Amino acid sequence: MTVTDQVNGNVNLNATANSDALENSQGHANKVKVAIIGSTGYGGVELIRFLLGHPQAEIVSVISASSAGLPITDGFPHLTGILVSDLDGVDPVEIAKKADVVFTATPSGVSSKLVPQLLETGVKVIDLSGDFRIKDSSVYEAWYKHDAPDEQVLEQAVYGLCEINGDDVGGAEFISNPGCYPTATLLGLIPALSAGWIDPASIIIDAKSGVSGAGRGTSLMTHYAEINENLKAYKINKHQHIPEIEQNLTQIAGEPVTVTFTTHLVPMTRGIMCTMYAQLNGTYTNEDLTELYRQYYEGRPFVRIREAGQWPATKEVFGSNYCDIGFAADHRTGRLTIVSVIDNVVKGAAGQAIQNLNLMMGWDETTGLKLSPVYP
Amino acid sequence: MTVTDQVNGNVNLNATANSDALENSQGHANKVKVAIIGSTGYGGVELIRFLLGHPQAEIVSVISASSAGLPITDGFPHLTGILVSDLDGVDPVEIAKKADVVFTATPSGVSSKLVPQLLETGVKVIDLSGDFRIKDSSVYEAWYKHDAPDEQVLEQAVYGLCEINGDDVGGAEFISNPGCYPTATLLGLIPALSAGWIDPASIIIDAKSGVSGAGRGTSLMTHYAEINENLKAYKINKHQHIPEIEQNLTQIAGEPVTVTFTTHLVPMTRGIMCTMYAQLNGTYTNEDLTELYRQYYEGRPFVRIREAGQWPATKEVFGSNYCDIGFAADHRTGRLTIVSVIDNVVKGAAGQAIQNLNLMMGWDETTGLKLSPVYP
Amino acid sequence: MTVTDQVNGNVNLNATANSDALENSQGHANKVKVAIIGSTGYGGVELIRFLLGHPQAEIVSVISASSAGLPITDGFPHLTGILVSDLDGVDPVEIAKKADVVFTATPSGVSSKLVPQLLETGVKVIDLSGDFRIKDSSVYEAWYKHDAPDEQVLEQAVYGLCEINGDDVGGAEFISNPGCYPTATLLGLIPALSAGWIDPASIIIDAKSGVSGAGRGTSLMTHYAEINENLKAYKINKHQHIPEIEQNLTQIAGEPVTVTFTTHLVPMTRGIMCTMYAQLNGTYTNEDLTELYRQYYEGRPFVRIREAGQWPATKEVFGSNYCDIGFAADHRTGRLTIVSVIDNVVKGAAGQAIQNLNLMMGWDETTGLKLSPVYP
Amino acid sequence: MTVTDQVNGNVNLNATANSDALENSQGHANKVKVAIIGSTGYGGVELIRFLLGHPQAEIVSVISASSAGLPITDGFPHLTGILVSDLDGVDPVEIAKKADVVFTATPSGVSSKLVPQLLETGVKVIDLSGDFRIKDSSVYEAWYKHDAPDEQVLEQAVYGLCEINGDDVGGAEFISNPGCYPTATLLGLIPALSAGWIDPASIIIDAKSGVSGAGRGTSLMTHYAEINENLKAYKINKHQHIPEIEQNLTQIAGEPVTVTFTTHLVPMTRGIMCTMYAQLNGTYTNEDLTELYRQYYEGRPFVRIREAGQWPATKEVFGSNYCDIGFAADHRTGRLTIVSVIDNVVKGAAGQAIQNLNLMMGWDETTGLKLSPVYP
């Protein structure tokens, strides 16, 4: 039930059937109808930002278990006049009546139970939680500390790291959207690893994230007075993104890969930087590497390879779906240093989810995602 | 000379005539051609961000006096793969050969000399400096401390505060884009002032701005270690936006208005908040005020009036062209408090300049400007 | 029960009786023994920072209702190796056995009940809550929305705005420490008001605070991703510091004073700036004002009057007990603008509380408080 | 020429001979007289903050090549009423007449020429530049890109990493104060390296610094709008602190050590975190490591070893001279991760310089440095 506001093109999801009819006559009938479960988290509200400008998708329902019945602008006044809607409750059958595709921006442990119910209704699902990323249930349970999802549903999940697995995503019914750290890590490491230029046993990943990565739930760690003017390491060797990274690197390397992975909280809202180290298997120059990476990502506009010796900064991708990568081979140590940056809320969550929607539907992968980084 | 990159829709201004022909055949021929002078400042680069997504305008030249000949990505690597162009020099005749409309995001004192030359070539101009805002040259010189522009050119300038002067902007050849502080101040005060509900002699404006308002030039005041975790008052009673505010309030009130105006630098990149105080001429309730303001701005989607007692925050307009306004009448003191917020780089500069382009060309004023605020 | 660690001079409150005896022999016997209730809040932990360096006071107990029994370093690892102590519970009788003076850094509504019990035991009390600042109980209840404290106890409370009421503080048994906003406001306004230079009916206070002012409790408003890169007005005309300001200005003016008072949250941890406006009663120059203010605060080292036209910034008092004041008379409007800044955790809370301890005990008011601002 | 201001104990370096005599009679005659060259940089002004509270040293001259003759409060108004002094010019002979010890907080390339002149006058020198840290002049010139200092003077320089080389510092005439990154790195690595528990060939250091580390000079990189809400890698494999780290690790290991070292700029003012990785030579537990580190630093109060699995944050040492260290051995990878944090302006510069003064003079190393971290 959607309608375009005549004055300013904004979306009113509380419209009547009448105005809906009007809307259909305006040619929106062919748009794919999407619903967002978890609309009051940062991933959910970022999905809204991008989908409002998507020419081939329309939001038909914004859903929140905790705030059902309330206007979405109660929690997000920045949407005043842009998205006029009360939040719906989580009811898979009702959702399926309205939507063709459902984004589940729900916490780990919730998705594992909710997604099977959604898939049964016949809707397509793009899940932003970590619940369907780990193929080995025992590994999942060891790192996530709760029950793995149903094996059969898990098998259906296509891991949607678009630039690597894009071909698998086309036509998929159920996509598991990658984690924020794994996205930055894997896009940075895979070209060198798949070319055999680095030693898989030597990989160390020093990851840094803005505070929005911790979500909208309040805690002492994310309290402004605690994390402002502060830099904090956390979950060293224990982050649940480690098995996701290792599973994918293992697949590329063709042998078991174990990594050292450290996470830090940086006093900024958005942005992830992964600084990665590995032993080079030969004397490759920066120019060799630039050539390798540019060829690897040819035709994939969201990965930008910097000139050798120029380092990307997180602000240079702020608010956008880009992943920027720089690197330097060091002849003194024989090591390669790779720096990759993303906006954790976009390429690390909502943006890549929409990129997956595009690939799933057979659209150009940049559809609705061509926003430049916001700078400064 | 522009061409659409086939792969990702990005803009390459270094294209050959050949590809240009190609591009024309793609139906871009009818777009209005725009040039941006001052492309390496924050106002200029924000014009680029919005114009890249504008369906009826295309950037044909990005111009910088200081960096002519260099790729724009040297200074702004976030545009890598998005805008491929070397910066052009400032040559009015050459600019006029390419462009229909020129944005001059040049410093005060530069625009006053450059704009007359541009107008002579027949292009339309939207000037983002303060040089053509003050109609009384002696007032201009007292506050700006340098020579006023040519009187005849000054007379042609239409002050482009869109929601107030939109009708004058339609069809104009030369628009003077309002200052950032005056935009937030005037949009907040004018409904109450024009209704006669507040005493013009009692107006006090306490303004706060993010640091990008000081421009990209380096200085000790904008050094990170000096202004981070700091709040600083500056130019009290001396800011050059005072006469701009007073000129416009005087016009609305029909009597000379003098204001107290204080500016503060806040440790954030973007955003302006003006907290304004005035004596009420009667016992108006918050509901009366909400009604008054909503009626005043009916049909103007970029001004959003909050429910009485709800206060807008700068982040709620971050990266967008909105101006959000809240207010409270206080029966204890008989005063009205008004809070208005804008993103200084958007509604306070580049966004309003594009809104002026839209009105000037007779397009919907929201064209190319429908980006939601980036939150969080 | 305290002992000086021989190696590094740090304090171990878990010491045995034996080491205590040792300690006494070192000449600490004459120090005043202080306890801090509410040691796990920002006011409490800042009291610890200053008292550890106080030559005439020693901390004998750090107390927390919520964390009793836990080491204080669990919540505040920055105190590792500096203050070795488990938190004590709130037991007035036990506290009185150890301490001569108790700081109650407890929430409003808690202090009102706790302080009478403490006073009964004979200890001196310095209360940092707002519970004993408002002399008229009906006014208190109207703004604080809960019961006023016992009238008899309330009468004993001396309002400890040191530079104004210092003489009353000397020898007092029970001091009510001023609020953060009132401290900055009153120190800025009182010299001009008491001289009759400004119109008491015209006072408007635009106040801005860092986020630590909201305390250590978590909330969406103080969540990093919400308030970083944001500026937010709150509680306009409704802040409970309004009656505290008005009560004191009324006393100075000798007539009822009502003020307009607006509060804003600024994305920084520490610091308050009050920008204040009032109508001048005559044509005073900035030099007149400088002279007036310097005379008023002669011999009071913690108030620093800036040269006319130089504006204090919050970072210039960061971490210190100073209140810096600047001002400008504006001949165009006949108004005076006053800017005062403090560190809300120091002069706005813990620092002033220790200054009150000093005055109460007859010591130099700067004892233990001579730390320079931390810059940058 | 110093005198204690009678009212508030602050320092007035512009005093007359008369007041100087007075001062001497107050018993300050035995204090060591210190001068600070480079008083208008962040290192210099932090020396002032700590020396003002140092019981055995007194500042007799604050010196600046660029601002000689101006009051120091022109550039640093936070010192208003605290340090009343005009800046002196750089004249080694004049300095030697006043001072016993000189701190040279001068840029690299300046110190190399200035220090020999100072030493010739017979004063003791503590140099905060990098000019005298590298013992091999060819290595110095390769990394610093300018001429090495005179060999004979270089030989006199004692590298003042207090917790490691403290014994050499006692009685030294000329100390080269360590760099900020090397301090955090070396204190974190040396216990494990000297015990032979880690492989010297496997060391990778991922370092992050607040923006004050770049000094007070303005640049685009330190412009607030550029580095706020940003995280930026820089000088990868090229930082001039690399040879300083390698020289010291080589000395400890007894074999040539080459490291991978990456630096990042973090949007905060103060703080350095070094996250370090090395291959373990055996199956050491976290408890083994805690024991090793605590023994190594026994009796050195400024190094604090955290419980295994607890990670220090930069804010926990803000404004103080502490270096906090945490670590985790990872059985999956056989690697050790070490996290060390310091305040770059204190333990990374001015604080350690004063610690060196203390050791040089035979005083307790904590003298004047017992300030707790400022939290929050």
TrEMBL record, chains A, B, C, D:
Q: Name one GO biological process term.
A: L-arginine biosynthetic process
Q: What is its main location?
A: cytoplasm
The EC number on file is: 1.2.1.38
Q: Which Gene3D superfamilies match?
A: Dihydrodipicolinate Reductase, domain 2 (3.30.360.10), NAD(P)-binding Rossmann-like Domain (3.40.50.720)
Pathway the protein contributes to: Amino-acid biosynthesis; L-arginine biosynthesis; N(2)-acetyl-L-ornithine from L-glutamate: step 3/4
Q: Which GO terms describe its molecular function?
A: N-acetyl-gamma-glutamyl-phosphate reductase activity; NAD binding; NADP+ binding
| Record localization | Cytoplasm
Q: Which residues form the Semialdehyde dehydrogenase NAD-binding domain?
A: 33-172
InterPro entries annotated for this entry?
Answer: AGPR (IPR050085), AGPR_AS (IPR023013), AGPR_dimerisation_dom (IPR058924), AGPR_type-1 (IPR000706), NAD(P)-bd_dom_sf (IPR036291), Semialdehyde_DH_NAD-bd (IPR000534)
Give one Pfam family, short name only.
Answer: Semialdhyde_dh
Q: Which GO terms describe its cellular component?
A: cytoplasm
Q: Which residues form the active site?
A: C180
Name the chemical reaction catalysed here.
N-acetyl-L-glutamate 5-semialdehyde + phosphate + NADP(+) = N-acetyl-L-glutamyl 5-phosphate + NADPH + H(+)
The record ties this protein, via CDD domains, to: AGPR_1_C, AGPR_1_N
Keyword Kinase listed: no
Q: Alphabetically list the UniProt keywords.
A: Amino-acid biosynthesis, Arginine biosynthesis, Cytoplasm, NADP, Oxidoreductase
Top-level taxon of the source organism? Bacteria
Q: What does this protein do?
A: Catalyzes the NADPH-dependent reduction of N-acetyl-5-glutamyl phosphate to yield N-acetyl-L-glutamate 5-semialdehyde.
Record family assignment:
Belongs to the NAGSA dehydrogenase family. Type 1 subfamily.
Q: What is this protein called?
A: N-acetyl-gamma-glutamyl-phosphate reductase
Q: Which organism is it from?
A: Paenibacillus lentus
UniProt lists the gene as argC
